[in-house]
């Protein structure tokens, strides 16, 4: 839980080159059926107003400068929620010439530029389900406990 974000969560949604399946699920999570707004989630038109960046899709080389600019424009504390297989690890495009992969590679680039990210949440799935997005929101707000321990093994 982010202690610094106790109020409503203002979210900026950024597709970094995905197929739009996760984008559709984000919109579905905001419909009255799933009603993410009951947790105080509000989509904002600019990263300058956002607490959380919802990142969908693998980060393409074309989108990389715009993604970095958007994250730099966010006020601190800033959080990233990587949605879907592509946002988390690059999906099936993780090792192609036109992408850098998922949020893990993006964090390395941000660290090299001196841009601090206060927290990253990972929501797997292809596409990610609206229930998973709601669970991530509840986890972020401290309403639920983690279901699994966070041990991730990477092969470099």
TrEMBL record:
GO molecular function: 4 iron, 4 sulfur cluster binding; metal ion binding
Protein name: Membrane-bound hydrogenase, subunit NuoB
InterPro entries registered for this protein in UniProt: Complex_I_20kDa-like, NADH_UbQ_OxRdtase-like_20kDa
Keyword 4Fe-4S among record annotations: yes
Native organism taxonomy: Archaea, Thermoproteota, Thermoprotei, Desulfurococcales, Desulfurococcaceae
Keyword vocabulary terms for this entry: 4Fe-4S, Iron, Iron-sulfur, Metal-binding
Source organism: Thermogladius calderae (strain DSM 22663 / VKM B-2946 / 1633)
Pfam families: Oxidored_q6 (PF01058)
Family indicated by similarity: Belongs to the complex I 20 kDa subunit family.
Domain NADH:ubiquinone oxidoreductase-like 20kDa subunit: 19-138
SUPFAM superfamilies: HydA/Nqo6-like (SSF56770)
């Amino acid at each position: 839980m982010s202690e610094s974000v106790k109020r409503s969560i203002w979210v900026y949604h950024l597709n970094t080159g995905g197929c739009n399946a996760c984008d559709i699920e984000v919109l579905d999570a905001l419909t009255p059926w799933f009603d993410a707004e009951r947790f105080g989630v509000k989509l904002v038109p600019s990263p300058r107003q956002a607490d959380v960046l919802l990142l969908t899709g693998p980060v393409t080389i074309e989108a990389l400068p715009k993604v970095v600019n958007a994250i730099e424009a966010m006020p601190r504390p800033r959080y990233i929620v990587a949605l879907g297989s592509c946002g988390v690890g690059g999906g099936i495009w993780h090792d192609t010439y036109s992408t850098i992969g998922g949020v893990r590679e993006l964090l390395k680039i941000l660290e090299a530029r001196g841009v601090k990210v206060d927290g990253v949440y990972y929501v797997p799935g292809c596409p990610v389900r609206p229930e998973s997005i709601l669970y991530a929101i509840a986890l972020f707000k401290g309403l639920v406990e983690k279901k699994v321990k966070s041990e991730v093994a990477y092969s470099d």
